[in-house]
Amino acid sequence: MNYALDDYILAHIEPEPDYLYRLWRATNIHMLHGRMASGHLQGRLLKMLVRMIRPKNILEVGTFSGYSAICMAEGLEEDGMVYTFEINDEQEDFTRPWIEGSPVADRIRFIIGDANTEAPKLGITFDMAFIDGDKRTYQDTYETVLSLLRPGCFILADNTLWDGHVVDHNYDRDPQTRGIETFNDYVMHDERVEQVILPLRDGLTLIRKR
After folding, report:
1. pLDDT band for position 34 (cuts 50, 70, 90)
2. Which letter does DSSP use for residue 77 in this model?
3. Rounded to an integer, what is the distance from CA 8 to the centroid of its chain?
């Protein structure tokens, strides 16, 4: 990895807001697998994509520490809302105060529960979705999200290169790697959408519903 180039990129994009920097540090100090948080570069990309797509309602599957939800909410217009689902209730004590204390708290609804069963109950048609939950169930989550998405709108799926494990046969029996591989193959052959994988961090797939 070219750390000098990474530093150069971060020095030439929109600065990371102080609140998000403090959240990033707290996530890495207090939570297992802190690197799962989106971070500066991906966070600014999420905000930019929201500015470009201009969604009113965003569905996020997998809140983790709330970093990505806050970034997307930053890009929303005043009447927009991020509905973010976290299935692991043990993370609520950490994540909820950070979301509710953020400058965009009024644009985020944080829900503990399984998005695959709970999101359809909201009765909302979404304009954008960010899938970043359990890799083993990515395909099922994709189907749920696609059914709730307005035609012409976008799904972003994170971790679709899975640290390179998708091309490493040492991980052929790993359930999470198999989940990502199954998802990638499924989306590639899905005529309902068009898609492109960005080699950003751990892989980010942009999917447009036809």
Report:
1. low
2. -
3. 24
Which H or E run includes 33?
none
The helix (H) or strand (E) run that includes residue 41 is helix 39-53
Spatial separation of the C-alpha atoms in residues 141 and 134, rounded to whole Å: 9
Residue type, 33: H
Span 157-194, pLDDT tens digits: 999 999 899 999 999 999 999 999 999 999 999 999 99
Mean model confidence pLDDT for the chain: 95
Structural element, H or E, at residue 126: strand 126-131
156/201 Cα distance (integer angstroms): 14
Are 20 and 67 within 8 A, CB to CB? yes
Report CA-CA distances (Å) from 127 to 147, 159, 167, 186. 12, 21, 32, 22
Kindly report the backbone phi and psi dihedral angles of residue 133, in degrees, each rounded to the nearest multiple of 5, phi listed first: -105, -145
H or E stretch including 108? strand 108-112
Strands (E), 62-100: 81-86
Tokens encoding 169: 């046969």
